[in-house]
């Protein structure tokens, strides 16, 4: 009986260790995989906004994307320098979601929160000195690397060319520290 109790305690302890390790490391593994796919499969450098086509069965790059949205995105790295993200906001629903390396969504802006129809954000790492260009929003990234996802609602098929025009104007640039 004592041997069985010891064995059960060992299995329980091992299960707890593996569970904690899984919960702690899996988000980082997932996000590193996403960044790898952006950089290698799509051949997009870090700190560069890429733009997907209108989603259909031939152009989808992720499982079950919404066909009513235009997607753009970027893998960011602020470990060496801040990154400035600039995007005109179209006359439709629009959002930009910032994700840390552990998959936490740490900042969101949308067409209702952006003033003046133009999003201008400087993304910086924690505790780093940074230049702040005028009329920009400073966002502190909780991790040096992560992903930003832009979404634009296709509210009418006739407006797709107009919305794609706005989509393609989103850009990012690394700033001098």
Secondary-structure map:
Layout: H1 2-41, E1 50-51, E2 69-77, E3 83-88, E4 94-100, E5 105-110, E6 118-125, E7 137-141, E8 145-153, H2 160-167, E9 171-174
Parallel strand pairs: 6-7
Antiparallel strand pairs: 1-2, 2-8, 3-6, 3-9, 4-5, 4-8
Characterise this structure.
This protein is α+β, with helices and mostly antiparallel strands and 177 residues long. It contains 2 helices and 9 strands. The chain has helices at 2-41, 160-167, and strands at 50-51, 69-77, 83-88, 94-100, 105-110, 118-125, 137-141, 145-153, 171-174. The longest helix has 40 residues, at 2-41.
Short description:
The protein is α+β, with helices and mostly antiparallel strands and 177 residues long. It is built from two helices and nine strands, in the order αββββββββαβ.
Q: Can you list the strand order of the major beta sheet?
A: 1-2-8-4-5
Number of strands: 9
Please bin the fraction of helical residues: 25-40%
User: Structural class per helix/strand content?
Assistant: alpha+beta
- Please indicate the percent range of residues in DSSP E strands (runs of 2 or more): 25-35%
List low-pLDDT spans: none
Largest sheet: number of strands, sense, barrel closure: 5 strands, antiparallel
Write down the CATH topology.
Answer: Immunoglobulin-like
The residue-averaged pLDDT reads 86
Q: What is the class in the CATH system?
A: Mainly Beta
Q: Order of SSEs, N→C? A: HEEEEEEEEHE
Distance between the termini: 65 Å
As a whole number of angstroms, the C-alpha radius of gyration is 20 Å
The CATH superfamily turns out to be: Domain of unknown function DUF1254
CATH architecture: Sandwich
Number of helices: 2
Number of domains: 1
Rough shape?
globular
């Amino acid at each position: 009986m004592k041997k069985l109790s010891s064995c059960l305690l060992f299995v329980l302890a091992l299960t707890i260790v593996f569970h904690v390790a899984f919960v702690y490391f899996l988000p980082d593994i997932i996000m590193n995989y996403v960044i790898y796919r952006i950089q290698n499969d799509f051949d997009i450098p870090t700190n560069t906004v890429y733009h997907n086509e209108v989603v259909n069965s031939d152009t989808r790059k992720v499982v079950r994307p919404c066909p009513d949205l235009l997607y753009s995105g970027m893998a960011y790295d602020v470990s060496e320098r801040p990154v400035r993200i600039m995007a005109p906001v179209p006359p439709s629903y629009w959002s930009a979601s910032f994700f840390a390396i552990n998959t936490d969504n740490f900042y969101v802006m949308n067409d209702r929160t952006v003033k003046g129809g133009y999003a201008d954000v400087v993304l910086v790492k924690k505790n780093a000195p940074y230049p702040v260009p005028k009329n920009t929003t400073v966002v502190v990234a909780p991790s040096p690397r992560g992903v930003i996802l832009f979404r634009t609602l296709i509210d009418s098929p006739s407006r797709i060319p107009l919305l794609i025009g706005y989509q393609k104007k989103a850009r990012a640039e690394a700033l001098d520290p």
